Amino acid sequence: MSPRRSVRGVLAAAAVLGLTVGGPLGAAGPAHAGALGSTAIGTFTYELRGATVKVPVGCFLTHRIDGSGKEVSGQLAGVDCVGAAATFSRFCNWRIDFAYADTNDRTYRTARGATHAECDGAPLRRAGARTLPTYGKACAKLFVNGEPRAAQCHYITK
């Protein structure tokens, strides 16, 4: 199974590898933080070349962020589906943006992802390191056919 098919599988494997490489619990080393979360994507329909496409219940936007403080070492966001949704869900004209907001919930930067015209059952986007100018939150946002469909956020604090 390819990593695009199971975002959770990739993220779980990365977490296990991180614990393995990091050594036993309590070992001294640099402080690192990360967060992983999923948000359910509600059922929706959209038009594609004159046909109606329905995405059923059972899909999730999963977002992982790694780093320490305002230093983000990387992010991964993608869609995975379970049950019947895993068989029948296709996301066409999709993109994933990473958005950053300050502690007053004002978005100060959006790293817009590329729009993928092809249809995909497991959209996935990675982002590299960046230093945030302020504490607040980092979000992954899924768009399908130009419409926002889900967002998953993590708070970045001291």
Rg, Cα atoms, Å = 17 Å
Total of DSSP H or I helical runs spanning 4+ residues: 2
User: What multimeric state do the chains show?
Assistant: single chain
Total of domains: 1
Shape: elongated
Order of helices and strands: HEEEEEHEEEEEEE
Query: Structural class, judged by helices and strands?
Result: mainly beta
What is the total tally of β strands? 12
Distance between the termini: 38 Å
Output mean pLDDT.
83
Q: Approximately how much beta-strand content do the residues carry?
A: over 45%
Structure summarized in a few sentences:
The chain is mostly beta strands and 158 residues long. Helices cover 13% and strands 55% of the residues.
What does this structure look like?
It is built from 2 helices and 12 strands. With 158 residues, the protein is mainly beta. The relative contact order is 0.21.
Give the secondary structure arrangement, pairings included.
Elements: H1 7-22, E1 33-41, E2 44-48, E3 51-55, E4 59-68, E5 71-81, H2 84-88, E6 91-102, E7 107-111, E8 116-120, E9 124-127, E10 130-131, E11 136-144, E12 147-156
Antiparallel strand pairs: 1-4, 2-3, 4-5, 5-9, 5-10, 6-7, 6-8, 6-11, 11-12
How would you describe this structure in keywords?
158 residues; mainly beta; five-stranded antiparallel beta sheet; 2 helices; 12 strands; 13% helix; disordered N terminus
